[in-house]
Fold Aspartate racemase.
Amino acid sequence: MAVTFGVLAGMGVLTTAPFVDMLISSCQKLYGAKHDKDYPEMHIISLPAPFNLEGKSNDDLVIETLVRGIKNLVKVEVNFIVVPCNTAHCYYKEMKEAANGIPILHIADVSVMNFKKDNKNVAILATEYTLNAGFYQQKLIQSGKNVIESKFLRETTTELILTIKSRGFEDIVVKKLWEKIISWAIEFKVDALLIGCTDISPLIKNEKYPFDIVDTAKSLANAAILEYIKFKKN
């Protein structure tokens, strides 16, 4: 029986295609995929969730939406599931229960392990929901990191995410907000940035920064393909 996995995406809607590109790149890098037949069977759902980044979300409605998406992937009997949205992981418990025993890779678990030993001071770019949930701070502190908190960073990151959602990645305002965040990171001498929102991930270019960047979307894509390889061997 073929090994398949599910991708519950669409949060935000602009992030689905870039994440699929990351999965394809990981296949090429991790096991040398070349031809169409070399790539995994993926069941991808683009499911926009009713998160309210400017106020309080209706938790019941968010959970209902996420659970529906997970159950649709369960129906097609995938071997495991990935959810390329950090804010959705605030509801990981509910998604895990809906998965009925099918593993869901936790985006924070597979991302925090990618920091270098000398990445002592880490700043997190994420939604208020993700930051307030605290799972990244907890995992980073447990791994010996110092989390740099900043009101400016929170507010600018929120503005950046909302602008991306309404204007896209190439908008001039988006680029200026990203430059502000980079300048802040340089000024405060952070060792690494954690990109804890997949809306921001496509802004990372092949540029040289004076700090490391751990991208949660890329981390999850790599982890998904490693999990796929593991299932194929069993």
Q: What stands out?
A: The two ends are 12 Å apart (CA to CA). The chain is about 45% helix and 15% strand. The chain has a mean pLDDT of 96. The longest helix spans residues 216-233.
